Amino acid sequence: MEGSQPNTYTGNTYVQSGTLELMKQPKATAVRNVIVEQANLQISGSHQIEDTAKVTLIRKATFTFNGAGGVGLTEKIHTLQADGQGVINFAGGTLAVPNVLETTQVLLPTADDTLFIRNWIEFSDYFLVSRAFAPNSAALSRIWFEGWDPGAKLRDYNTSHWEIVPFAAPEPATYGALLGALGMGAYLVRRGRRPSHRRGAAVAGRAASSGVAEVSRRQIK
């Protein structure tokens, strides 16, 4: 779905097979509420979905950020809900231009619902939730990041939002202290290493460092 004009259809959009790619030009909203079941919703440009929309991922449906050429994308929605298992797949974010998924709330309605985050790289991909509607510890325990032990936590981002990160991810201040003491910052950036406590190998093609000193938080616009 592309072009320079907003989509005037105001009903729900259903994706039940294959991939629906959204690549409207900036400020031209492609869709509103989206229900994806065993299929892939892919954004190839920023701000493709209405800010007040709900995106529902059903039965291993995937929400993909296609940040081609190392240019991260920004998407703001109201609600992200996983029914069964939902997947967020980040691609293309960098330290300079990260991927940012900003949500008001993240819902996992039942104890069997999980949200799996693929290709997440620290400081290159941001998964945000409003401080007013932050998920509780039970819901966070069902958010899993590829290559990390199961579970997530909330980390300070700015005055309005938390960042959802792997439970084992260090706080930014910890990174700064460790790298400053060890003098390893430049080495880790050059090597593109992730934290040593992760379980799996880094996904091919996403060799970007998570072990860098804290970068300035971007204010949400």
UniProtKB/TrEMBL annotation:
Record keyword Signal present: yes
Q: Which UniProt keywords apply?
A: Signal
On whether Signal is a keyword of this UniProt record, the answer is yes
Q: What is this protein called?
A: PEP-CTERM protein-sorting domain-containing protein
